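Re: the request from the purification team.
They wanted to know what the chain is likely to look like in 3D before they choose a buffer screen. I agreed to run a prediction and write the result into the notebook, where they can find it.
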Amino acid sequence: MTIANVSVNALSQLQALDPDWPGEFLGISGFWWHWLLFTVIAIAFVLVMVIGFIYLERRGMALMQARIGPNRTGPFGLLQAIADAIKVLLKEGILPANADKIVYWLAPVVVFAPAVMVFAVVPFADGALLADLNIGILFVVAISSLSTIGVFMAGWGSSNKYSMIGAMRMVAAVISYEMPILLSIAGVVLIVGSLSLNDIILAQQDVPFILLQPLGFLLVFIAGCAEINRSPFDLMEADSEIVAGFHIEYSGMKFAMFYLGEYAEAVVMATIITVLFLGGWRGPVLPPWLWFMIKLFIVFFVMVWTRTTLPRVRIDQLMALAWKFLFPLALINLLITGIQVLVWPDAFPWIVIIINFAIAGILVLLWSRFSKLGWGRIEV
């Protein structure tokens, strides 16, 4: 018994949404209507998911910490995030006297915009996306990394030492944790033979890649949490060390842009994990877009769970985890995946799932026993 061929060509019989959908209207070609419609959908989707993630985190953490959480504004506190947005809009914007004004003003936009741009290539159903690029996952990785430039701009433009330290921590974390993410993504690309996100989802018609790549999933999840500044890796805004990090000098709507950007990056990371390892929009009975959203919320709930459970690591432990633990495991995972693709070029036997889970467990156990994340002095 074998796992069905994951070649994209074998899935060509599945009907996809036409690239010119919804067709010509008012003398305007379907291409432009398609572009306009999915641009609006991408922006609306990010904003709705950000509000949902904020609510899930507040209510989820409240339940885990035996407290109530937001429950006054709207039914069950659903409108609390909107009320907070209105409050922030009414606050005064303060500009530091020595700030680099152009850099200071552009930083919040540079942080938030890439998170929206990523969804130009993310499918909400088969073919339901703005542009099905043949380098889709490469586009996602490249664009999502641009927000780091915005963080550095905020640290530099604020003319504040604490902001600069927080920004430099962010740059160091992104450079370090981008490596295991890219190597883990390469394992999925080897299996599928395509960089298109739509093709990657179509290739998971029988089994999600979390079963074929359990170690890759674990590496992407851990490295992703570190890259988007999620606890326990939120050293870029560690209040006990550097007050509020790179956005300490921001207030009003500019601070709100950073706040939205942080959760938008969480949406992007949850999307990458969902597309690569959880089958994206695939699922029975329910509409594809609804399955996609459910999986996003499940991934983010695990992020919230780790935030309420694990203490914040030190900066030396943060860097050591990337280079001494995740990076070597990502290389080994890529090597094993390449060997398996060479041995079974057309189809993987079911035994591969058991083998990969066993390999992942053994590697994590052994590497955690022999790897030390450093116990010396704390370095900035």
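For the purification team: Confidence is low (pLDDT under 50) at residues 4-14, 376-380.
Please add any questions underneath this entry.
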